[in-house]
Every structure is written in structure tokens, then in C-alpha cells.
Amino acid sequence: MEDNKISYSDEEGQKCLLPFLEEEEKEDKAGQFFNVKEHWEEYKLEEELAGGGKMGNKDASEGVQDKSDSSMKSLECYLGDINNIRAMKYTDRICILTLQRNLKEFNDIAKEKELGVQKARDKLSTCQLRIKMLAKQLECVDIEIEKEEEAGNVAALSRLQAMHRRLCTELEKEKDFELKIALTLKENMLEMWQIETEQGKYEISHEQLKKDEEELEMQYQERAKMRIWKEKIAALQAEENQRSREKKEAEAQKEYEERHKKMLEDAKRNHEKAVRFLRKSMARIHEKNAKEEVKTQEHMERRIQAVLSLKNSITSNREKLQTLQVWNKAMAFEAKKQEMKMREAILAEGGNVAKEIFLHKRLLEHEKEKQALRQQQKSRKIEIVSQILQEKASIQKQKKSQSCTKAIKGDGKLEDSLRWRMKTWRYIEKTCKHSAGAISQSWCSPTAYSSAGERTSSVEEISEKIPHDVPCESGEDEKERDKTLVEPEFPGLWSQECVLHKISKEEMDPKQLATREEKKDIFEKKTEEFQTGIFHKQVVSGRECKGRTFYSKPSCIHFKDFDVGQIYKKKIVLINASYSVNFCRLVGISEWLKDFISIHFDPPGKMSAGMSCEIVVTFKPMINETLEGEVMFMAQTGSFSVPLKCTTKRCILALDKELIDFGSHVVGETISRTINLTNSGALGTRFKVQMSAGDSSTCRATAKFSPGGMVIQHFSDCVPEKKGSKSPVTFVVEKKDRIFPDHREEMTYCVAQVEERKTETSLSSSSTEQLGQDVLNYRSDLDTDNAHNLVELSPEETPVEIMLGKVTEGEIGPFSSVKLQIIFVPAVPGDVRAEFVIMFDNSDCKPLCFSAIGVSVDVPVWVPNPNIDLKICMYDQLYQDCIVIQSRAKATLRLKFEVCKALSKHMELLPKTGYIQAQSSFTVQLKFLPRHSLPEDAGSYFNEETRVLEVPVTILIVDKAKKVNFTVHAIVTTSDLEISPARINFGYCTIYEAVQANVMLTNKSILPQEFGFVGLPEFVEIQPNDGLGILLPLESLTLDIIFKANKAKEYSFELTCKSEINRQFKLSCKAVGVHPPLELSHSLVQFAATALNDVSTATLYVMNSHVSVNHFTHAVPRIGNGEVAPVGPTSFEFRVPEDCPVTITPSVGTVLPGKKSLIQVSFRPALSDQLIREEAVRRLCGAAVTGAEIQKRKKDEKREGKKLSVSITRQQSSRQLVRDEGSKFLTSLYSSEQPKSEEIKPDSDAYMAAQAFLMRNFSGRFEKYIIPCFVASGGIDEKKGSENLSCSPHTTLYLELHCPAVAPSVVVTSDNGKNTVNFGDVAVGHRMIKRITIQNISPEKLELGFSVLNPNGPFLLVRPVGMLEPGENKTLIISFCPNENKWFFETLDIRTAKNNLTLSITGRGVMPSIVCSVEEVLHMGYVIAREKVTSTFKIQNTSTLTLRYSIQLDSLSSTRDKDQQKLPSFITSSLQRTEFVGTQNYNGLSVFSIFPTEGEIVAGKSQEFIVTFSPDHESLYYSDRLKVVLFGKKIAHVIHLKGAARNHPMFVEGGIPLDVPVESLAVTLPVSSQEARKGELREPVKSILLILEYIEGESSPVPAMAELKVGAIQTDQFASKKNVEFSFDSLPLLQQKGFALESVGGTIEPGQVKCIGVSWVPPADVPADDPLLVTALLTLKGDIKESYRILFMAKVVSAYAPTK
Predict the structure, then answer these.
(1) Kind of pairing, strands 1096-1103 and 1079-1080?
(2) What is the DSSP-derived secondary structure letter of residue 770?
(3) Is the preceding omega at residue 1646 within 30 degrees of 0, hence cis?
């Protein structure tokens, strides 16, 4: 076995090492054949690279060559060494590994055998010691036995003998065990010797293995060296490649820079050319635009005149219509008069007035219809004739066009095109003569007119733009076109022959006027019908569509900044915003826009709600004016329109500021400021800046501008237009003269500012300020060339201090800006003010004004910064600043620096005296060290409320006695940090928890301060940010000081807070550490996200590790330095707060020392009852208010329907009143009917609906609970509980619970969302099924799993659900079949990936029980055959559930046929009879019938049953069995039904019948009464045995008694018969034998029963052993006569006879 094991392990080792060895074998082969070659090629490549590098860099190449030579030499030496080493083969390596593994296994086996031998030897030695000990004990027992034998102690002797026997058996067992151990020891020794011999064989191979391992290690080292050399060679090659790559990149960079420089030069030249050509083209464009503007203006004037004439004609027509209306009224009045006259005439004649008038009206209508038909026929004929003429004209045109095309092909196209161009140019010259004259009269620059050559060239360009694919038309068409071009737009209004205020006689014809009025009325009716047929309200889901039904994007069609002659297109989208399908068609546009606007619109047909269609609007401007109008559409719900607006290009000019304040400056300085002039419009203009003429009185000095300044025009096409960017500044410019002066002359405009100047638009410099190159250069050279920019002053003029810069006039382009420079050169001390005005060439642009002010100061020394602001300073901190003093004097000045005496302790200037050189600067050092006495020392210089310090400092010029003042400002604040409270007492803290205290750290300074708590002990932690941070000015920060005791003792320590200026603030702390006797395994439990009504459970332990009171070896439980807690059982109790969804089991327990107790914590989140009740109240109130509003709305509709005749004002007032009343009614209803939350029951529908709503909309919550665990020493008594234990509040443990609650993924939607499936009471053995509907309310697809119900329990999940889509509902089927009379409860967990849904299934098994008023037998009595009798009995349900019953009869059983095939019941004994069904009817109907046969009996109620007995023939043995079956399974009660039927109304009952209870199968017809009277009764009808037993031996003998019953049946069939009579025969014999009858004869009335008592006292001669038998005949007389043989059997029975 061992050899097999070794060989198996060898195979496994070879398989594991096979990949490694194959890889090494490949590497060895590659090393043998390819390594030398590869290294040689790499070194050869290195030499070539080094040789190539010599051409570029000799030093680098020499270095590389040296390296390569040295590395090649080393490589050759290395390769020689490798050749000397013998390479180990692959098979040798495998043998080495195999041998190594075998030796290791042999060593392991040898060690195991040695260990086994050692154990066997130890066992043998112990066994021998045991044998010796038993032998000694046996000797001692023998000695004691001898002693006891001598003493005669029998009891001790027997005990010792038993011990002797036990020792002997143990000694024998030990000897046998010794033999076994010796045998195993020999076997182990033999195996160990064999292994040692085997190891001796492998000693030589072991030595060889060591040598091979050393050789293998050398090979591995050599291979590693080879790889290192390869890496070095690769690194050298990579360096050389990098050098060559860098060289190529440098050359490419040089080429790129040269190319880029050349491209820049070319671009500059091209730009200059483009600018030159652009200026020329712009001049031509301006000239063309001016001509077109003149044309459009003339055209618009003509159209305005046409519109005015049209207006006049409309007014005249309106007057005509008024006269026609008056005439119509008069005619109607006349018609009424004639009708009245006709009525009177007909009445006078005695005719029918109504009939005659009706006929007259019918005749008039018939005449009108005839006339209308004639006119329609005439108009139709005219239309047909016109269509025929048009068709003829079109045919002629087609023929002419064909001939014309042939002529054109023959003559050529060139001459025709030239002729066409000449004709168009002549027409343009004729139409533009007037506009040219207007242009010459208007004001323009001299360069506005273009030469004839330019004009012809422009005409040629225009003609070239005309498309050549226009078809050629005939000369007549050209004439017609020319005529239409020349004709005015409204020819009827332009003709001079038409006089508007005159009306022709034809127009005044009353007949024509009447027909016109009738046509007009008919048209209005038709339009109304059309509108009422088309326009209708849209009502969808009870809501009427109000407002606009179509919306457009954009809402306004706006063409901005258009150019005349261009074509603009815009696309708009119409969206159907109604509630249903709608239509849309284009009606038209405003009348004044038809010449400029064209619309392309394809009607989309039916459009659903939300759908859209597109419209293309094309604008071709012909006049340069702003146009406004609308595009009109017609929809199914009414008309709507889209506004349209076309705005021209405008200049919108504004200044960024209106006042330039230079401030105070010393005489001789030069200061410049800029002001921006911005044009946010799309039209450019020229501007000119000049001094305002009306400011000579307010300005001390005037300003001039340098002539000849121009600005290059720039365009910015990328700037978007902004609405409302107009400047609100309005000016009124009054021109005194119409002369336009030269640039050198002064302007004579008077500019008056009317409104306040405001600038609202400010465009960004990146988009609007695109200035030219000259302006940019000017800005860069502004500081160096200020002297050359100014205009030289003449000696006669006053010095000009505020003047303009280079740019004084120029052109500002659209969407651009220009910077204007204002220069201030103070010359005379004092205030200076200058007013400027900017004029524009565009007449629509009003002048803009701005002003500049400044102050000149004449002091030889000045401080550039007269206000030294030291910002905010802290007490006891040094602050320094340098003050620079400038001098413009031409000599050296001596300066003295003084600070007020009050602040000499706090502020100092160094040096205090100094010399400043001519026209240079001097620096003074300011030192400020505020002390805490600063508020007292500073006096009025320091404001204690604002903490502001203002110190005046004086610079005294000693030689000139002049002073220069400057002020030092500072805000002085404290550096205190306040900690409140200053002392913290943490109280008692256990070592298992941390105590937190809050302190407020306040920064009293108005500067932010950094702080940090340093040197914190290990048991203290400060948060946030570990006690480090920055406090803002006057900010307070709450810090959490967290103390965690590490052992039980009293703590007293201080915490140090340091500020950034190294100030320290102390916080003293105290605490008492407590070591409680118990500890929790986890003090923090973090539950997973738990769904509502789900359960999450966590476990932890309460441990008692207190087993010793020695406090030197380990920590012991105590409070501070107090007494140690006793060792023993320790009790605990968890106190869970109310309304906490957490359960802890067990909450009370006792833990023994060194033990632990398992605690289970359950978290079951649920919605709070109060929240559900509030939501239910809110929903009920909302439903009530909605219902009240609906009712109120119905009432309002009824009221409005009744008050239709009321005026509009009254309707509005009444509606407002109704609304007010309705609101009051709703508020009163809401306040009166609002239910209280306490009144809502948890099982109500409102409560369930609110709970389901809140559960579906639950957004989740996170709550923390801290549960205290009180600890007390001692155990808990089961009887007394924990009342006798006292616990310390300081040793209380705390359990923190993190409880996140989320919305469930699956909810129950059936049964109002209840998670409890209550089957209620179910009968034992019966099954009930319930369906539960669940819904996925999460947005994810869920895979459901179910927990396993008890397989032996009554609940069964019939149909589970696998997957649930989002929002899907599915049904679970659960059945309940109890088998015991008790309550059952189980939970079914519906598991999802995130959470679970727990269904609580409960049901009660109830054993059904009933109580019947009839116990076993129900005898229906005697009945006349073929008659019925009824009887009732009640069954009461005594169980707690409703019972479903059914009544079954054995006679109607399905198995009765099988039962009848058995032996008859009379053959068997009475004890063995099981047949309950007796005689049955011949007609096949059941003798007994029960009503009702099935139904339900409510718990605690009873049900009455009616039993009907209806026999169809005579028999005394009618019987049946009635079963009460519950739930179709269980037989709850059995009643034996009996009854007898007679053909005659008399019967005898009693005794023992001697006939058979089962009648014959042969049907015997009943004997009629007449036949019975005629015939004689030969035999008695029935024999009856009457047994009487006399008991002998009693002290007071009692005669034997028996009873016979004779009865008469009450029936309607024998109502006329007499009573039944009965009589006995053989009475003397009966008396002789000792029988006595109570009644010997008599009569019985119908319905009565006579009981005849029979007694017997044995006579003296009667033998006691033999029974006495006497026969008597009982005769009954009714409708017939019947005889019964009565057999009286009497016997004497001893009173002491044993009973069987």
C-alpha cells in the first residue's frame, strides 16, 4: 500500500510540475540555439546606431561606442562562461524532483514509525506498572481476607472476596493487553528497521541530489544575468531612438514656424486687400439702398392715398346702407298696413282671413323663387360664356407661344436677352426719376452719388441675377404686363371720373336696393348657419376647452433688421392645444401685409391633441418701414391669429456712464479716463463729440478736441439682438441754422436734458468691442504719447484742463462700441467741470450728453494714498505699513512726521524727520501696536461702538511752513475665544459607552480665527473635525466633547484650546468611570432596510465575565473607586419605550458568572395609528367637500336655467352671491361634518383606505432608539420577580438601534390591504379557500419566493406566484382544513430580493354541535290510509359557526337497492337487525317527507323542520331513518321515524305483536266496508300477546300490571260515523285465572285513546313454574267490526332470582 501511495503521489507531482518543466525546457533549448545569435544581432544594431549618431553628435556617438565595445567584451566573456557550464537536461530535472519528493516521503514515514514505536513503548510501560499495582492490591486483599476469616466477619469477608474477584479479572485483562501491545511494538520495530534499510540505499542519491540542486541554482542565476544584459541593450537602443526622434521634432518645429510666419504675412496682405474692396462695395450698397428707399417711400405714399380714398368710399356706402335700412322699414310698415286692409276687406266679404293671407304669402314667395331662379340661370350663363372665352384665349396663347418659340430658335437668344435687359432698364429709369430728385434734395454727403458707369455696372449685375429659364411671352403679353405695372393698385378709386359723394340713379333704384338688402340678409344667415355648423364647443370628460386651441412656436413672427430687396423665410409650428381632434386652415393675413408677406401652408387635415403642423412665412421687404399685422387661421372651435412684426434696422446708442470723476490731483499731473459709446442696434451711423455750448457759466475751464480724429468702422455679426435695449435718455435738439459747419467750427445746437439718464444695456467687451488695429495701437501707446495728443494752447486762451483725446468723430458700426478718451491736466488749483455732447448723423438718434469733473491741488509734497487703511487689527499685535511721499519741488525739502499725542503709545512713524530729494519719493515706516488701553487713550479718535480708529497724521515741511495731512484708519478688535460653559461634569460613564457634552466656542473678534484643541488625552474626542477649525467673525460653534472611560476611576483633567496667535483657553472636565458587572456583545445594532409590516431580527449576547474580585489580575466591576460588585448571578432587564417598533426577547433574565445569555431584537416598522387616522379624516373631508360642491353646482345650474331672462349685470351679481353662499356653505359643512380621528375605527373602510394610501406613498424613514438595560446583582425569583432586586442607575447599559424603514415592494390589495388572512371558524374536517391579491408597487420586476408552511398543519398554499411585473396584480390561493377543535396560526413570508411581506394566516377549527328536540324516535301515530299528518321538531346550532345542513332519508338512499338484496330482517334476530326502512307506499312516493331538506343554521339559532306522514295503504310498520348531515359529510343526528295507517278509524295498541313487521311482496287490495259488513270475519285481524310478571317474595306484594290502548282516529272521511265501541269476551275465565281489567267495554270518541289497564294476582292453584296463558277476544265496532285475540301470559318471578 505504501509503495502504491508513493507512486500515486509521484504521478500527481509530475502532472503539477509538467507545465513548469516544459517551459524551462523550451527556454533551455532557446538558450542553446538562439541566445548567442540574438545577442550578437542586438550588439550589431547598437554599433550601427552608434555609427549613425556620429554624424549628428560625435561626443554622444563616442560614448555609445565605448559602451557598446565594453558591453560586447563582457558579453563574449559571459558567453564563454556559459559554454563551459554543462546544461542540465529536462529528464534530469524531473528525476531530481522525483528523488527529492521520495526522500521527503521516506523521512516522513520514518518519523511516523518512530513516533508509533515510542507510543507503544509508553503504553507497554504503563501497562506493566498497572499489572504490578494490581498484584500488590491482590496481595493486600488476600491478607485482609485471612484476617477477616480469623475474626469471623462475614460481611467484610464477602466484600473482600468480591474485590478479590474484581482485581483478578482486571489483572487478567491487563496481561492480555500487555501481550497485544508487545506484539504491535514488535511489528512497528520491524517496519522501522525496514525503512531505515531503505533510507540507507538512498544516501548516495541524496548526495547526488544536493549536487544537482546546486547546479540548478547556478543555471538559474546565469539565466537571470542574461536577462539583465538583454534589458540593458534594449535601454541603450531606446535612448538612441529617443535622440533621433527629438532631432526630427526640432527640425519639424522650425519648418512649422517658418510656414506659420509666411501664412501670417499672407493673411495680413489679404486682409488689407479685403478691407479696401469691402469699403468700395459698402459704398455701392449704401447708394443702392438709398435709391430703393426713395422708391419704396413713393410707392407707400401712393398706397396711403388709395387707402384714404377707400375709407371715404366706405363711409359713403355706410350712409347709403343707412338710408336703405330706413326705406326698408318704411316698406315693411306699408306692407303691414296693406295686410291689415286686406284682412278688413276679407272680413267684410265674410271669407277665411288666415287662408287668404297664407295663400297670398305663398304666391309672393313663389314669385320670389321664380325671380331668384331666373337670376341664377343668367349668372350661370354668364359664367359658362366667360369660361368658354377663357378657354379660347388660352388656346390662342398656346398657339402664339409655340410660334414665338420657333421664331426665337431661328433668330437666336442673345439679341432677345439684350432687348429684354434694355426694356427693363428703361422702365427702371422712368420710375426712378422722381426718387432721384428726392435724393438730390435730401441732406447727404458729397460722395453719396455714384457715377454712370457704376450705375450701369450695377444694372448689369442686377440683370445677370435674373434667371434665364423664364419662358418667353408674346408682345401682347408684354404690353399687358406693362399696363398692369403702370396701373394703380385700386383702379376704381384712382379714376377721375368717379365722384365719391355722388350716387348714380341706378344705385338709387329702390328695387335694386331691396334686392341688395335681401341678398345681404341671406348671406348673413348663411354665414351664421355656417359658423354654427362649424364652430362648436369642445367638451371632453366633462371639461370644456377654454382659451386658445392652437399655440404657435414662436408666439410672434418677428423679422428683425431686414434689408429691402432681400427675401426672409421663417418657419413656425402650430400645436393643437385642445382636448380632442381639431382642424386648422389658413384664412389670410392683414390687408396691409399682402404685398410683402407670402405664406406656404399645407392643411394637415385632422390633428389629434398635441400634434403640430408647420407653416413657412416668406417676407420680401419693399419699403424700409416697420410693419405689424397678423396671420389669421380658422379652427373647428373658432378663429385665432398669430401676430407678425417686421422691424427695420435702427441705431440704439448709449453711454456706459454720464459722469467722469477724476478726483483730486496735483497741478502738473496728467490723468486720462475712457467712456464707452455702444451701438446695440443693427444700423451704423457717424458721430461727433464736442463741448456743450450752454455750460460756459458752470465750467471754469473749457476743453478742446484734437481735429482730424477718426474711428475705423467695425462690424460684429455674432452679437445677438436684445429686446428692450433702447436708451431711455431723451433729448430735444433745436437747430438754429440749417447750415452744416466744418469740423473746426463750433456747433450751435442747444441740448436740453428732459428725463433722467439711465443706461440699461451693457454688452460684453468680447462680443461688442471689436475695435480696429489702429484703436488697439492707440490704447497701447496712450501713456507714452499723452503730450502729443493734446492741442497746444495759445497764450491768449485760458488753460484747458479737461479735454478730449484722439477720437472725436467717426463712424460706429452695428453691434459695436467705441472708446472715447477724456484727459485731465490740472493747471490751476480749484474745481474743474466740463460738459460734452455727442451728435449723430442719423436723425432718429438723439444727442447724448456727459460731463467730467476734477479737483486741482497746489502742494509741493503730496501723499499718493492720503487714506492709509490698516484694515482690521487685533490688540497686542504689531502691524506695519509703508507710506510713500511724492515731491514735485525742484529742491530738496525737509519733512517732519507727527502723530497726535493721545496715540503716541500705540502708533509710531520712523524716521520722525527726513529729507526728500527734488522730484522724487520718500518712504516712511508706520508701526501700529494697539494696547488694551487704546479706547481710553484715543478719546474721540476711537468709536467704541463701531471699533473704528481714525488717526490724523501731519507731514510738516519745515522750510515752507506747509502741512500735508493724511489719515490712518483701522478697526481694532479683540482676539478672545469664549468657551461656555467653562467646566464640564460628564457624571458617571461606563467603560462600554461614550458620554457627550456640548460646549459653545464663540469668536469675540471680527476677524476669522483658527483654533484647535491640542494635547487631548486618549479617552477624550472632540468633534467635528477633531477639534480643529476656523471661526468666522462673531461666530459661535457647538463642539461635541466625547468622553469614553477606559477603566473604573474618577477623572479630572483640562482641555487646552489654542488660537492661531498662540493664545490658550482652558476647559476643565470631571467624570467618574464605571465598570458594570454585565456587558453587551454589541452596543449598536444596525438593521437592514426593512419594509413596512416586515420583520428584521438581530441577535446579541448579555455576558457576565465577572468571576473573581481580585482587582490586581484584571479589571473588576465597580463604580469609580467604590466597592467591587459581588461575584454571582446578575440580572438584567431591557426597558423598551412605548410606541417603539422594537421587541426584545427575553427582556428580563439572569446570567451566571462566566456565562452569556442570547438576546433576540426584532424590528417591525409600521405606520402610526394617529397618522392613519389623520389621513382618513382628511380623505373623508375631501370627499364630503367634493360632494357638496357637486350638489351646489347642480343647484346653481338649476337657478341659472330659471333666470335666463335676467340681464347680464344681474346674472353676474347673482352668480357672485351664489358663489359666496356656496363657499360659506362648504366651510360650514366642512366644520360641522368633520369627523374626529378618535371616532374612526381600525376596521372601517376609511381607516383601511388611508393605511393603503400611506403605505403606497411611503418615502421611507430612519429612526434611532436607545434602549436602557438595567443591571442588578442577584437572581430573579420566579414567584417574586425582580422586585426584591435593587439596581444602580450608574451601571445601566445602553443598546442603540438604527432602524431604517422603507416602502414595501409588494402589498396586499384585497380585503382593504390587510396582511392578515382570517378564515374564521371552519368546521373540523372541512376545507375553506381564500384568495389574496398582491401587487408589485416597485418599478422593478420581482421574483417571488415563499416560506414553507407546516406540512402537517391545516394551511396549504394552493397556487403560488413566480414573477410580478411592475404594477401587476396576481392572486394567491390559500386553503384551510382544520383537523382539531382549536385555533391555528401560521405566517407565510413572501420573499423578494429587497424585503419580505409577511401574511398572518389564522383560523379556528370548530367541532359542529347541534341539539334536536326529538332524541331518537318520532312516532307519527295512526293515520287513515291515503291521508296526511304532520309533525315538527327543532334543531338548534350550539356551535360558534354557521352550519350547512342537509336532511337525508334511508328510503331515498342511493344504496338502498343493494341493501334490499340481503336477507330479510325478520329472518335474523332482533339484535342483528340493521334495517330501519319499513313498509313503503305502493305508488313509489316516500311515506315520510321533510321540509326544508337543506340550508344553513346561524350560530346560536334554531331551525324548525316539518315531517309529513302520507301512507297510501294500511300497515302498522311504516318506518324510516332521518339523518341530519352537516357540510355534506358528518352525520350529526339520527331520528327513527315511525307511523301506522289503517283503513278504518280504530286501532289497538300494546303488548307484543305476533305478526311479521315486513309485509308481503304481493299487493293485497284493501277490503271495503260494505264487503266487510256483508261477510263474516272468520279469523281475528290480529293477535296480541300481553305478558304480566308477578314478583314473589317482596314484603308488600304488588300485582303484575300491563296496558292496552284502544283508540279512534279522527278524520274527515268518517266524520258522520258514530263513536268506536269496544268489548271483551271470556271475562269469567279471566277473573278465574286472576286477571282484572279496568274497563271491560265502552265507547271512544274520534281522536281519543282509551288505556285499559290489566292486573294479575296469581291464584292459589296456579303453579309457580309454569306460565299461565288465557285467551280473550276484544271486539271493536266502528264503521266495521274487528276482533283482536288477546293472549294473556302470566308468570311468577322470584324477587331473589339472579338477573341475566
Answers:
(1) antiparallel
(2) -
(3) no
Please say whether the beta carbons of 798 and 702 come within 8 A.
yes
State residue 1241's pLDDT score.
78
Q: Is 1656 helix (H, G, I), strand (E, B) or coil?
A: strand
Contact 665, 825 (CB under 8 A): no
* Peptide bond preceding 1658 in cis form (omega within 30 of 0): no
Helices vs strands, H then E, count in the chain: 23, 80
Give me the helices (H) in 1534-1632, please.
1569-1574, 1627-1632
> 510 vs 513, 515, 519, 1523, 1596, CA distance in Å?
5, 9, 14, 110, 150
Cβ 934 vs Cβ 842: under 8 Å = no
- Whether the bond between 1146 and the residue before it is cis, its omega within 30 degrees of 0, is yes
Instruction: Tell me the C-alpha distance between 1041 and 684, whole Å.
Output: 72
d(CA 593, CA 629): 7
List of residues 6+ apart from 576 with CB closer than 8 A: 549, 550, 582, 584, 607, 608, 609, 610, 611, 612
CA torsion, points 1245, 1251, 1252, 1255, in degrees to nearest 10?
Answer: 180
Q: 703: Cβ–Cβ under 8 A, 6 or more apart, which residues?
A: 691, 800, 801, 802, 803, 804, 834, 836, 852
For residue 1481, the one-letter residue type is N
Q: Which residues of 1349-1378 are buried (b: 16+ CB within 10 A; e: fewer)?
A: beeeebbebeeebeebeeeeebebebebbb
Q: Which of 871, 883, 873 is nearest to 906 (CA)?
A: 873
d(CA 1313, CA 1249): 8
The candidate with the shortest Cα–Cα distance to 833, out of 668, 707, 696, 667, is: 696
Reduced to 3 states (helix: H, G, I; strand: E, B; else coil), residue 1567 is coil
Compute the half-sphere exposure of residue 1548: CA atoms within 13 Å on the CB side of its CA.
29
Please state, in angstroms and as integers, the Cα–Cα distance from residue 261 to each residue in 71, 266, 273, 776, following that order.
48, 9, 19, 22
Instruction: Tell me 1499's DSSP state.
Output: T
Find the distance separating the first CA and the last CA of the chain, reported in whole Å: 87
Estimate the crossing angle of helix 452-465 against helix 414-431, to 10 degrees: 120
* DSSP secondary structure letters along 74-132: HHHHHHHHHHHSPPPPHHHHHHHHHHHHHHHHHHHHHHHHHHHHHHHHHHHHHHHHHHH
Residue 686 banded pLDDT, cuts 50, 70, 90:
very high
C-alpha grid cell, residue 152: 469471623
Taken in order 275, 277, 281, 283, is the CA torsion positive or negative?
positive
Residue 1399 reports pLDDT greater than 60:
yes
Count CA atoms within 13 Å of residue 1028 on its CB side: 6
Mean pLDDT, residues 312-317: 88
User: Which cell numbers hold the place of 1623?
Assistant: 268489548
Q: How far apart are CA 1079 and CA 1293, in angstroms?
A: 7
Structural contact between residues 1282 and 1148, judged by C-beta atoms closer than 8 angstroms: yes
pLDDT tops 60 at residue 1072:
yes
Written as nine digits, the cell of 701 is: 475751464
Burial class (CB in 10 A: 0-12, 13-18, 19+), 1546: buried
Q: Is the peptide bond prior to 1360 cis by the omega test (within 30 degrees of 0)?
A: no
Q: What is the pLDDT of residue 1450?
A: 85
With 50 as the cut, is the pLDDT of residue 796 above it?
Answer: no
Q: Determine what percent of the chain is predicted with pLDDT higher than 70.
A: 73
| CB neighbourhood size of 278 (10 A) | 12
**Nearest-5° angle of CA 658, CA 661, CA 667?**
145
Helix H or strand E segment including 1055: strand 1050-1059
pLDDT at residue 1043 is higher than 60: yes
pLDDT digits (tens, 9 = 90+) for 209-218: 778 788 888 8
CB 1456 within 8 Å of CB 1423: no
Phi, psi angle pair for 540, to nearest 5°: -125, 125
How do the residues of the chain divide into helix, strand and coil, expressed in percent and rounded to 5? 35, 30, 35
